[in-house]
Specification:
Layout: E1 2-4, E2 9-12, E3 21-26, E4 29-33, H1 41-49, E5 60-62, H2 68-71, H3 74-80, E6 84-88, H4 89-96, E7 119-121, E8 126-128, E9 133-138, E10 147-151, E11 156-160, H5 179-190, E12 196-199, H6 209-224
Parallel strand pairs: 4-5, 5-6, 6-7, 11-12
Antiparallel strand pairs: 1-2, 2-3, 3-4, 8-9, 9-10, 10-11
Helix pairs in contact: 5-6
Bound molecules: zinc ion (2 copies).
Length: about 230
Amino acid sequence: MLDPITDSIYFIISRSFDSNITYIKSGNHEILVDAGTGLYSSSLDKDLHTKGSSLEMITDVVLTHCHIDHIGGIIPLLERGSPRLYLHEAEAVPINNGDYSQTLGATFGAELPPFKIDVMLKEGDLIDFGDIRLRVFHTPGHSTGSIVMEVEDSGILFTGDTLFPGGSFGRVDFPTGSPEKLVASLKRISEMEFEIGIPGHMNVMRYNARKSALTSYQMAKNWFNVG
Ligand SMILES: [Zn+2]
Ligand SMILES: [Zn+2]
């Protein structure tokens, strides 16, 4: 089910172990932010059809980080079409060198066929899709290449698995996780200007998401006893 955030940004709540997925229509671009595990790609295709889109029409997939629950869904997309893939360089470089360990695919019994990341993201990058432009902030902690992205001039922030609603935050016990970096990233997010937060799991923070970020920062700081 597509849940409209604006008239061009639609949120799809996760199925089972999937990440959330967001579909964005901007001019000739049909964009997904995160792609789920890929296990539910036929449901995603049906959802996209309600907006006149489809798996094969997706032109760009921006990944908040490389974990299998976010990246697995690029495989059915690459089978049906040829989207450009975007990922922070800290995780894209190993993948493009054939090292898929950071995706955790093997850990979860879902090894990925080979693929390459087309666009390596870094702090401060602006991904220009025309009407919609995404500003990249490197926010490691949940994983080394985790990012959050601001939709320019909209008050919307994609928070990946770094910030979740209700004082929650991403786990740090996977290989490149770091409690210190997560707390620093949450602090940084809590100081950013945004109203709506779209996380990698759980529900959209629809109002005063920045306050939610402050709560998560304080909870994480106490939980990990850092800062
Ligand atoms: Zn996730
Ligand atoms: Zn993750």
